[in-house]
Amino acid sequence: MRAAYLAVVAALPGILQPALADAPPEPEGYRLENYRAPTPATLTGAKVIDTSEAKSLWQQQAAIFVDVLPQPPRPANLPPDTLWRVPPRNSIPGAIWLPNVGFGEIAAETSAYFQHGLDTATGGDRTRPLVFFCERNCWMSWNAAKRAMTYGYSAVSWYPEGTEGWKEADLPLEKVEKAP
How does DSSP assign 48-85, residue by residue? Predict the structure, then answer.
């Protein structure tokens, strides 16, 4: 598999070769630690898309965008009576935010939350196109896209550039709230 991957990399334009050649290989399972690190160039069973493709899908409303950036926890050093609010999440307009579903291991209730969120977003149609994203060099979206395929979703795309790539392309972001 690694030889086939390197053959594909060798065929790409020169400017992309260094970045992709340094990409780690896909693990057999989920990434379990160091979630903010370089991600693979591939995700078996899913389509990996760039900002141009993501923009096209978004403009055509041809896919459901699923943001999986984790929700920051309440800081441990805050006194118990201190009011704390989750910082706002700026995301791709129209995206649903399903935080904490991209960890390598998730609790049964998190898995149920993820499945419910996807079922609600797709109206139960597991063939509806989905685009999973987070931020650049974040394994959360890779894990979440892989997990969605195990739930039976067949039109899964992974947008590894995430909100950072979106913003760098001067595309709009909007505040989103965690899906119920």
Answer: E--HHHHHHHHHTT-SEEEE-PPPPPPPTTS-TTS---
